[in-house]
Amino acid sequence: MTAAGQVLTSTRNPRVQAARGLRRARERRAQGRHLVEGPRAVAEALAAGVVEELFVLEGAPIPDADVPVRRVADHVLEHLADATTPQGIVAVARTVPGYLDDIGEGVVVVLDRVADPGNAGTILRTADALGVAAVVLTSGSVDPFAPKTVRAAVGSTYHLPVVTDVTLAEVVAHARATQRRVVGLDAAGAEGLEALSAGAAPVCLVLGNEAHGLDPDSAALLDTTVAIALHPRAESLNVAAAAAIAIHAATQR
After folding, report:
1. Backbone dihedral angles phi then psi of residue 149, each to the nearest 5 degrees
2. What is the pLDDT confidence band of residue 235, given thresholds at 50, 70 and 90?
3. What is the DSSP letter of 139?
4. In a domain, 8, yes or no
5. Are the C-beta atoms of residues 20 and 80 closer than 8 Å to each other?
6. CA of 93: how far to CAs of 7, 96, 243, in Å?
7. Cβ within 8 Å of residue 172, ≥6 positions away
8. Whole-structure pTM over 0.90, yes or no?
């Protein structure tokens, strides 16, 4: 912890600069660390044992944690945080990589080239809430440890395996080796959502890119595709909203 009464007021402080660097993907990968913002997400990261350092706004409550704590002035916290309106606390956390072999029984959600961090974080939060076994992000997808993704997940990042940097072909091979059906969500799906809960095998649910949906090469690897029946006046759903509907259907076995 900083010395009693000491408050960091310079954005050039070496610890502040090192932490701010984690807003960049290159630094996150090089250091194996990421930023966590806000009391709730930080509390979940602390519970998971991955927090290495805390930056707490002057006058804000300090969590009970055996890690270095640095009191900072308001403008320093704004310099650190990615959010437009910081919530009083930013943590530096160790990134724990997930692997396909870490995945237990149950539904697996795969984000195949999903690009928006807010969507990815929201899907992570939904998957956690509905008891999904793991979330996998294929190569070319958004970084699940980017500040906005972690913020949107509100702590769910630390509740289940988050697997990255794998190809869809590798995911499909693992799914079949673990007796999962590989089903893609697509506007022109061959079946309805009821197919997600049919049969004895759990589902590996694949969600495509926000703008382009499932890539044709990706779709060719799947066992089938399903569609959400929309009202005629609706053109489409945001991928995070569609994911919530499909994940709920898949977990009702």
Report:
1. -65, -45
2. confident
3. T
4. no
5. yes
6. 21, 9, 28
7. 182, 204, 221, 222
8. yes
Instruction: Please say whether the beta carbons of 155 and 39 come within 8 A.
Output: no
* CATH, residue 71: 3.30.1330.30
Quick one: pLDDT at residue 4?
A: 45
Are 70 and 7 in contact, with CB atoms under 8 Å apart? no
Pairwise CA distance, residues 190 & 245, whole Å: 17
Tens digit of each residue's pLDDT (9 = 90 or more) over 224-233 = 999 999 999 9
Q: What is the pLDDT of residues 45-67, one digit of tens each?
A: 999 999 999 999 999 999 999 99
Take residue 87 and report the two structure tokens written for it: 């919530």
Beta strands 108-111 and 51-57: pairing type?
A: unpaired
| CATH number of the CATH domain containing 120 | 3.40.1280.10
d(CA 72, CA 77): 6
**Among candidate residues 40, 70, 94, the one where a domain is terminated:** 94
Same domain, 58 and 143: no
φ/ψ (deg, to 5) at 6: -80, 130
1 pLDDT higher than 60: no
